[in-house]
Amino acid sequence: MTAPTRHTVLLTGRPGSGKTTVIRKLAGLLADRTLAGFYTEEIRAGTQRQGFRAETFSGRSCLLAHVSLPRRQRVGRYGVDVASFEQLVLPELARPCDLVLIDEIGKMECLSNHFVDAVRKLLDGPTPVIATVAASGPGFITEVKTRPDVTVWQVTNENRDELPRLLL
Question: What pTM value is reported for the model?
Fold first, then answer.
């Protein structure tokens, strides 16, 4: 029996370390390839973070979470719009592609059992996956980081500019 092929790289690190920056720069370097997945963008009012928007590599977006969303599902001070997130990312993650980029596997995203199931299916499949994952968290966050078929890389302020090239 041969060892499993590691075709999944997980990027983890402290908030603000540059995980999303690495994913976006890598996507730019791979502009000639067919990518699927999404990244998250902060929504700010001045210097205050108000929420997050999810944006796919096929050009669609949705509001993921916001301080003013009166949702039953919350992470910290943010109401999370799980239904809109699922409508956006589930078809995106099912698209045929050369590489899946996911930013991120975090507490907000994992409120969706359908998202968790889709990511498990991707990780078990043949398509390479590069994803960011929360530095800590229960359930699927821990599960995905401890899979024997993944490699976990730490993102820091010092290495974030070099990582996109290394991931190529």
Answer: 0.93
